[in-house]
Structure formats: C-alpha cells, structure tokens
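User: Teach me something about this protein's shape.
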Amino acid sequence: MFPASNVLGPAFQEQPRGWFWQSIVDNYAVDESSYLRELMKLARSDAAEKKAVTDLATDLIRKVRNQDDTVHMVDALLQEYSLDTEEGILLMCLAEALMRIPDRHTADALIHDKISTADWQKHVGRSESTLVNASTWGLLLTGRVVKMDRRIDGSPSSIWRRLVKRSGEPVIRSAMYRAMAIMGKQFVLGRDIDEALKNARECRDKGYTYSYDMLGEAAMTREDATGYLASYRDAIDSVGSDTYPGGGTPRPSISIKLSALHPRYEESQEARVMAELHDTLLDLLSLARERDVAITIDAEEMDRLELSLKLFEKVFSDPVVRGWGGFGMVVQAYSKRALPVLCWLNRLARDLGDEIPIRLVKGAYWDTEIKLSQQMGAAGYPVFTRKEATDTSYLACLRFLLSDYTDGSLYPQLASHNAHTVASVLAMARRKGRRFEFQRLHGMGDALYDTLLANERIPVRIYAPVGAHKDLLPYLVRRLLENGANSSFVHRLVDARTPVEDLVTNPVDALERYQSLPNDRIDLPGDLYGTERRNSRGLNIQVAADREPLLATLAGWSGHQWQAGPVIAGRRLDNGEKTPVHAPHKNADMVCEVVWASYTHAREALEAACVGFPAWNERPVEERAECLEHYADLLEEHMEELIALCCREAGKTLQDGIDEVREAVDFCRYYAAQGRYRFERPIALPGPTGESNELYLEGRGVFLCISPWNFPLAIYTGQMMAALVAGNAVIAKPAEQTSLLAARAFELMLAAGFPEDVVQFLPGDGAGLGRELVPDERIAGVAFTGSTDVAHILNRQLAERSGAIVPLIAETGGQNVMIVDSSALPEQVVADVIQSAFASAGQRCSALRVLYLQRDVADRMEELLAGAMQELSVGDPALYCTDIGPVIDDAARSVLESHLEALRASGARFIAQTPLPDHCTNGSFVAPTVVGIRGIQDLDREHFGPILHVVRYEAEQLDEVIDYINASGYGLTLGIHSRSEATAAYIERRVKVGNTYINRNQIGAVVGVQPFGGRGLSGTGPKAGGPHYVLRFATERVRTINTTAVGGNASLLSLGVEKVEH
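Assistant: First, the predicted structure itself:
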C-alpha cells in the first residue's frame, strides 16, 4: 500500500521513478479502508486551515445565492431533472437518440415510447427556465413554449396521447428536435472550433480562458482516428490564430483523448500504441508548440491509465516537448492510484527539469469502474466507493500539488464545482504562494466562478466541448452522472433549500462519521452474491498488478507435458490406443498423447459407477456440496495452469481462459448452494390433520456427461457438478479435442474428495463410446452439449431402450440473431457485434451468426464494422496482444472455408475480412469474415466459427424478419440494439429464444445471473446455471405418514383446548 501520509517527508520524494511506478501498480485495488486512513492523515486540516476554508466557502456560497441569475440554464435543467428521476433519465435518452436517428418511423416510435411513460405533471411550473420548460414539453409549436393547464387539458400523459393523435408524430418529432437542439447548445460551445471561439468571447470578456475538447469518443477504425487527428490539428491552428486580446489571462488550450487518436488504444496493443501513437502525438505537439497552444491529455478509464503514463513519459522525454511546459495531463482523484501517479509525474518532471501542467479532477467513469470490477471478480475496486472518500483523496492530492516539492515541476490546474474544494484551494495556496489556476465545465458552475472572478485575481479555465450535437451523448452522460444527482454539489449549491452549513462540511469529517469508510452498500466483487456463494476470482489483465504475475507463471507452463488416459475407480490406465494432441494454433506443436478409452474401459467404468452410486446418494447433501466447493477452490488455486492448457489445447486466448476457469468455479458454487436448498430437507406439503406429507429428492443413478471442446472446462464441470450434487454417480466423456484439460480437472476432482467409485473418466471416440454406453439400461440419464445432429442420435438411442425412460438434457446449437434498429448507437453496436461474433473465434453456442441491420443505418454500421475488423489481431492465443485465436482443428477450418467458398460462388456480398498474418498458415486459422445475405432462410445450418452474415431490412418489415427467425427452428440467443424500450420489448416477446440480450453483447452468460439454454432445435432445457437445472438430475419422491395410526390425534386435540381470557 502506498504510504500516503509520508509524501511530504523530505526523503520520500527522493526515491527513484521506478519505485513510484511500482507504487502505482500495487495500489490498483488496494484495501479501501486501510488506504483511506493513510490519505486522511494527509488530507486533514489543522484548526486554523479548517476555519479559513469554512469561512471562505460560506462567503462564496452566500455571494452565489445573492446573484440574480444564480440558476443558469443547465443548472436549472440538472436541478429539475436529476438522474434520480425517471423523467430525467428519459429526457436524456430521448435527447441523445433523436440526434442520431435518420428515419422518421423509428424517431416517432421512440418519442411515443419515452414521452408516454413518465409523470411530467410534477415538473410543470416548477422552473422559470426556458430550457427546462422546453425540455419538459418538447413543444415549440409557433415558436413559443406551450403552456398546459391540467384543469383544461387533463393529465400530461393524456395530453401527449391527444397531441400525438391530433397532430401526428411528425409535428411532435419536429418540436422535439427543436427542444433537443436547445438543450444541446447548452452543453456544446460550438459545432466547430471557429464557432466555439466566437461563442467563447462573452466569457473571455469576463476574464475566463478555455480548454477546448473536440467531442468524440474512442476511435474504432483508422479512419476515425485520422478524422479526430484532423479536428485536433484544425483546432490547434484556429486557437493559435485567434486574435482575441488576452488581457493577461492564460491562452486557451486543447484537451485531447488518446483513445480518439488510435483505434486500439488499450494495454494489450502497447507495442502498436507506443510506436504508432507516439509518432502521431509528437507531430501534433510540434504543431501545438509552434502555435503556442498547450495540450492536455484527458483522463480515461482506469484500465488505460498505465498505458497513458508510459506514452506520456516517452513523449515528454522527446526534444519536441522538452522545455515547453505546455504538455499536461489529467489525474482523477477518485482513483486509488491518484496520489502515487502525481508523485511519479513529479519525479519525471524533476528528472527532466521541466514542468507538467496537472488538471486534478474528481473523476468521470465511476459507475463503469464499479460494474467492470464486479463483472471481472476483482479483488477490490480501483476507485473509492464514497463521494466523501473521493473528496478526501482530492484534498490529499491537492496538499501534495501545492507543496514545495512540486514547485516548478507540476503546475496545478484544479477542477471542481464544489465551494468547499475551491475554498480549500484558496486557503492552501495562500499559505504557499503557489501559482495555479481553477477549471470548470462549460454550462456548469457558472455562478460559483463568476463570483470567484469578481473577487479574486486567479485564472479560471472553462473546459468546453466542441462538435456536432449528435456526438454529445457520452460526454453528456458523464457530466450528468457527476452533477445531475440530488447529492451533487452543483445541484445543491443553487438550491436555496439546502443549508449553507451542509455545503461546507469537511469531507474528512464527513467520512469519519461513517461506521465503515468504504461504502457498505456496495459489496466487494467477491461478495456480489451475498451469503449464498462467493463470486469466482477473476484477473484484470489490462493492469500490470494482475497481468505480469499471470504471464510470468504461464511462461513456466509453456513446455509442460501433461498426461491423460481413462480413470476408472481412481486408477489412470495406459493400456489403450494413444492419440497425439496438437496445438490448434501451431499444428507442429504436439502437446502430448492421450490414451483413449476402449469399449472394455467403458464397461468397467459403468460397473464402478453403479457400485459407487448408492453410498454417494445416501451421503448428506452438505457433504456432497462441500466436495463441489473444495473443487472450486482447487480450480482457482490452479487457475494459471488451467489457462495454459486452455491456450495450448483449445486455442483459447488469455481472457477466454480466465473466463473459462471462472465459469467452472461459478458452476461449482452455484450448484452447491442449489443442492443445499433443494436436497437438505423434505418439503412439507399441506393436507388433512392427522397425517404428514413430504416431497423429497434423490439421485437417479449413473449419468453419462458428454461435454464439448468449445467450453472444455466450464461445461464439463457444470454437467458433472449438477449431477453429483443431486446424488448421482458420473461417467465423464470429454470432447476428443480437449481431453488433457478434462483430465487435469478430473485429477482435481479426486483431490477435492469425490469418491473414486463415483466419478469415472473416459476420453476417446465419442461415437463409439456413446454406442457402448447409451443403450445400456444402467445409464440413468445423459447430459449433452454439442451439435443438434448428435443430440438427435442420442435421443433415438435412448428411445430404443426397453427399460426406464430417462432424461436427455441437451444444449445444442443456434442460428443466433441480433436485430439493430436505427436508434441504436453505432459504436456500441459494432463493439458488441465484434465481441458476439468473433470472441473465441466464433466458437460459442451463443455466438452471433446473423446480424439484421435496419437499412437506414446499414451503410454506416457496415463501414464502421469493416474498419474495426481491420484492427483485430489474429494469432497465437497465448500472446497478450491476440484478439482472436484459431478454430479447434483443421477439420473445422475446412468446413468453414467450404462455406465461404459456397458464398462466393453464390455471389454473396463480402463486406469485411480481418487479415491473417503469415504465421497463421501453421495453424487452424479462419479469417473473421462478414458477408451480406438475403436472410436467415439462406442458411441451412449453423456455421460454427468466425463468420458473420448480415441482412438489411426495412423498419416496416420487422414482423417479417421475426417470422423468418422463428421459422429457422433454432432458439438459443437473441441480441437487440434499440433505444426504444417498446421496440425491444416487442421483439423480445415475439422472437422465441432462450436468452435475449438488449443493448449489450449476447455472449458470456453468467452462472446464476443469466441461466443459459435454448428451445426448439437449440436444446431441451432446463437452463444451465439456473435454479431448475439440478432438479432435472434428480427424481422426486413423496412420503405420506398417518400420524394417528398409533393412538389419537394429539395435535388436533390440543387445538380444542382454548385459553379464555377474563
């Protein structure tokens, strides 16, 4: 943990840069409680400073509230429509979506969807702001805001319905566009840099200066990056040529996002970024220095922090930048790494004898960071979980930034809309006499900083977005999340109902009042599922703290030779045919040889399992569940080895390998919890007095579990654990291609305490072993995941048996579709399409096969998709930089290439194909490909690999599209991208599939969160990882006891004696 309380010690800042870098790495998800205690020592004010800050803040707030125009238009909007109201959320959704929708049909549907559901009545007449009223009603008919009287017009919802009915959607649409344009102008300074410079003059006349931010998020394609670079160059030229007389205020600057300048700005592509973006950035900075326009690198998500720092260090050390003092960086105080980052930057500046401008902000991606950490199963969060903790971190960083150690090396640029923070800056800076500036956001905090400028001679820079209103959404959402909630300072500053005393509370004091320093309403990722089970441990390979130990350990497994063969009654056998196992990405790499099970082995395994079943079925479910949980712990303990096996034998990338192990662990813990819940005690049933009726569950016998190669650990584990916790014995038959991974996992099962006669392992030829085992009437059930054709064969084999009718639990393939309408966000769609179609080389049951694009947006979507696919990296799955690995073997590659040849021969429209590097000729690689077809009816089967088929459709043809999808007979997964909740709900209701994913990717179902399984040709159910799955492995029994058989009915007689109160 970083010793924050020591940063002002004389010797502390003399430590080398490498020491501070390691502190950044180590502090990624440090224990929040312990670290906050360190920070609080640094952030805490002495009595004199605390009084000075309180007095300054109180005076500022009173002066702000005494202004006539305290509530500016955007402040009014935030005050009325905070994001803790339904109307605020709907208004923002409508605003951003309408700017993007090209066709009237979808725009009208979206208006009807959003406007008709909210309670607008409570907002009428509560604000004097034109913006609020325009946004409330969205009607500028005849050029004025329409005022509505409930006594005359009725309720707002009925008004909307009548207006739409009377005027029609086109009139309402036109009015809404105008209303949204008003709102857009309040958040964007100008549509281009020249308009922004013109509009900035009013505030510059008051003494403000600016930092212009060219709107736009991360580039997805090379063309995107080129476009953003051009806009930055134009902005630098325009700002550099601006003739506005400065009058002593600092010159305007430009803020840039590194992710906008490179299509793969992420840690896994560090080599590309450090070469390609380094050169791009140096050219840009050379121009900026020539034009005397300072450049600040904007902050982004925590996963990009280390990459940003490494690039900054390399560029800052170049002669182009040396001695300039105009190349700065943003640091986010909500990050647990903020203070070590500042110390590292300070050491860098001192080592090179230069000054770095530092914009210190609170942070803009908090909710995303929390969600990602929970999804990843991280050890902790990279950000603080209380607002007061972030404010405390800000004060700690502020104290260091304004200390003597940073004088001449870091130039503080302090961004906040909080009067207490502003007062803290003033109080600390006056003590030190340091040069610094304030910064605020365009459209927010006007009153606070107007007051400050009127009373202080301190530079204030406005961070102002520049660009088309349609690009506003990501910026707008971040600003609203920061400032739009009722708890935010921006909201409460201008609300006279909030006492001044509440706004000047010291955050350290506020934090100390909590019993728990971290937010105890936000569970740690490991505790996400409460007391029922522990979340599986994950790794975030985007950060060095997790990645470097993983890569070092994996290197030790690179040449390891594993052994595999049948295991019967605890003994591994080697008396059988040996089959070589080759790495799918490098066919010459023989991982080892597997001894395949013979028919004799199969019979012996069945006999052993039959012997083991009765005792296992009689064991208390608690003991069976403990075996599952012990196995889960062993999987986590051996995670690195299992990931190495996933890479070498199954061709899985590092992230796929991590996810594979985590899913297996989740299956164990979830089914253990389900087992306890379902099997621990009988269910008492109602009935007449004098008898007991109970339903209880027990195992069926011996289950044959046939698992696939595409999830060789997760599904293999899930099938077996469900069967075992239900009291069954199991014969495991893994896929031929991935027997090594299954064998290693089987060893861990035995180590976890599963009895040797309860679990048997038979690697080998599936068809042959199936013919030997499935017809045997001692097999009490079959769990199968694989192709629909094989499921049919198994079903027929079971049906031909003359004995008991036993369950077949089958999860098969899918012709999975995603439907995208014109309201969808293109960048989000393309990211989700690439993940859904090409992750795991498209070898997932849930993978996207057919993409339906509404014709109005198809050109843009396809163009973006094609560009993004050119940036993907295909190759060795063990390399961190690889996005997509091989398909499982040459047979699979041959089938997929034949399909592509057939499409070419049919004249299909080839849209995009990711280039394959030369070394891919040594393995079973298929280039990710996108092909246009007429419809899903053109496909006669599922094509299990990285091939995506695209269909264009008219908005009015939606029902026809749905009919074709349902007619295919498959029903596994469906993706929907639409900003219209009504449209998404309609599609979800009508398309008959097992799992629907709305406005996200359609893969990666999480155990117990998204139970997985299909219908029709896609499976029998019940869903794996769901509450009904274990039940299918059990048989139900009912026990009825006549409790009056010996003597009378004492319980009934006792009810006849009543106590009478006098």
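Now, about its shape. The chain has 38 helices and 29 strands. Confidence is low (pLDDT under 50) at residues 120-164, 483-487. If you'd like, I can walk through any region in more detail.
User: That's plenty for now, thanks!
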